[in-house]
Amino acid sequence: MKLFIDTANIDEIREINTWGVLSGVTTNPSLIAKNGGIVKDVLNEICELVDGPVSAEVNAECSEGMIKEARELVKIHKNIIIKIPITEEGLKALKILSKEGIKTNLTLIFSESQALLAARAGATYVSPFMGRLDDIGEDGLKLVENIKKIFALHNIETEIIAASVRNVSHVRGAALVGSDITTITYKIFKEMIRHDLTVKGLEKFKEDFNRVYKKEIK
Ligand code: E4P
Description:
The protein is an alpha/beta fold. Helices cover 52% and strands 17% of the residues. It has 11 helices and 8 strands. Helix 1 (10-17) runs parallel beside helix 3 and helix 4 crosses helix 5. It starts with a strand and ends in a 5-residue tail after the last helix. The structure holds erythose-4-phosphate (E4P). The site of erythose-4-phosphate has 11 residues, from helix 7.
C-alpha cells in the first residue's frame, strides 16, 4: 500500500518527504483554503516537492465548469490528478476527461455503488472517506474492504485511496484489506512512527552506552 499525504501545507509535505515514504499528495478545497496562497503556485510547489500524483479538486458544480477547471489545472504540472466529487455532473465530466487521458480521483465516496459508477466511467482513483462514515456510526473500513472485493472480482483497474483517515488503526486496517493507497495527515504520520517502547528502548541504549563510553563521545 502506498502512502500519500493529505494536506496543502508545504512545510508538512517537505518534512514528511524527508522520510522517503511519500508516493503522492491529496488536497481538497478545505485544505487549500486553510493553507492560503495562490492556488496554482501552491499546487506547483507541491508537485515539485513530491514526485507522484497530486490531487487537485474542481470547485464548479456543472460538468462544463468542472471540465474547464480540470483542463486548466492539468496545465500546472504533469503530476496533477483531477479530483471530482461523485455527483451526476461529476460523472459527466469524468467521462469526457478520461477520454482525453486526464487522470482523475473521484472523491466523497461513501458507498460501493458510487465507487462502481466512478470506476465504470473511467476514474483512475476512487477515494472512500472512512472517518466521515465512522462519524455517523457506519463502518468506513468495511467500505474500503468491499470496494476492494468488487474491483478484484470484476477486474477493475481503478485504484483505491482510503481517505478521511482519523487514526493509525485506520491505516493498519486499510493496508490489511488491500487498499492501494492511504492518504494520511501530517499528525497521523507522526503518530505512526511513535511507539513508547521505541522511546524507552532508545533511552536505555543511550544510558548504557554513555555509562561506559561517555568520555569518548564528543
Ligand atoms: C481526501 O482526499 C480528503 O482530502 C480527506 O481525506 C478528507 O478528510 P476529512 O474527512 O478529515 O476532511
